[in-house]
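Entry 14: structure prediction run for Response regulatory domain-containing protein. Input pasted below.
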Amino acid sequence: MDLHISIIIMDHTLPFKNGLETAIEIIRIHNESKIIFARASDDIKDISLRIGAVKFLNKPFKIRKLIETINHVIKN
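Run finished. Output tokens:
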């Protein structure tokens, strides 16, 4: 079975690697996946966008904002 993941929503804080390292690996393996970072502070916003994330959401956010962001990523 070939799994195609279009959009990934992730934080920087992960159990084994940080989100930036994970995003770099994901983009290297499957560069068509779109990554949206969601984080309480914007300390990694610039670097996350430079490495290939398509959007950055500041937590907390409303579900409406998440849906708008996902729709924007799908359309572009």
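Notes: The chain has three helices and three strands. Will compare against the previous run tomorrow.
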